[in-house]
Amino acid sequence: MVDVLSQNEIDALLSALSTGEMNAEELKKEESENKIKVYDFKRALRFSKEQIRSLTRIHENFARLLTTYFSAQLRTYVQIGVASVDQLPYEEFIRSVPKMTLLNVFEAHPFEGRILMEVNPNIAYAMLDRVMGGSGAGMNKIESLTEIETRIMNQLFENTLDNFKEAWTSVIEIEPFMVDLEVNPQFLQMVSPNETVVVISLNTMIGDTSGMINICLPHVVLEPIIPKLSVHHWMQNKTKRNLGESEFIEKKIKNTFLPIQVELGSSDMSIEEFLNLSIGDCIELDQRINFPLVIKVEDHPKFFGQPGKIKKKLAVQIIETIKEDEHQW
């Protein structure tokens, strides 16, 4: 981050330049020399800042979905948020995780390769304790999980993959599924040690227990969809999606059928007059022939029209739209 100079520092710098104590050309030369940065080829940065920001947005959404999911499953206070997003060699990531931890390995078609979700032992056991009716106390006993406990943990995190799928929907449709559950990172070799991976660290709070959930995305997995992580692609897709939805809605509305009724008039008569009606009798309507007819759509007056014929069929011609305050019913 660039340091912001105070007003006194600015005044001192201007004074030094004006008196000749400092040379502007030397400052420019020093600045150009400082632009040289040391680059470690063993720790290649294969993702741009823009792509890292896109991955951060995706997993911020994933963190919100996980918060809702675990709150419902564990019935306790749960708060999950993105703490950091870094790219580093896979070997460095594996060395940073605890010796015994919960490692959920899964695949997500059409991605090629495996993705890793590492859960801090304290967090994992707090979840297990809540599922089994406990208070949610954190305790590291991952290395001695029973078969039943392993099955419960596997099912709990397997259901989080639906949230992972939903978080990635804005970029690509994926079908994630659990492959393995491991506790020792030394037995897990997903990619070569020098392969660049993106590690998304989620700060997790389960009741009074806190810890980290780390998601490891190898570069080889994300490589096919890296162009889709640009802001330009996101905005373009969003515009196309909005246009597509609008056209779909418009098409559906245009194909909707509505009942239309035209009233020729009405008449009131007593029950006795109605019972005495016979073939050939005429009923006088209260509609005058020089007045327009009311056309109703879904029983609501919408138009004025006049009766007529088209090719020996009765028809009505719309002559005016009824305003809301023009016709009261």
Automatic annotation (TrEMBL):
Residues 252-322 form the Flagellar motor switch protein FliN-like C-terminal domain. The keyword Membrane applies. Its main location: other. InterPro entries: CheC-like_sf (IPR028976), Flag_FliM (IPR001689), FliN-like_C (IPR001543), SpoA-like_sf (IPR036429). Keywords: Bacterial flagellum, Cell membrane, Cell projection, Chemotaxis, Cilium, Flagellar rotation, Flagellum, Membrane. The keyword Membrane applies. SUPFAM superfamilies: CheC-like, Surface presentation of antigens (SPOA). It comes from the Bacteria. Signal peptide: none annotated. Gene3D superfamilies: CheC-like, SpoA-like. It is found in: Bacterial flagellum basal body; Cell membrane. It is a peripheral membrane protein. Belongs to the FliM family. NCBIfam families: fliM_switch. This is Flagellar motor switch protein FliM. The lineage of its organism: Bacteria, Bacillati, Bacillota, Bacilli, Bacillales.
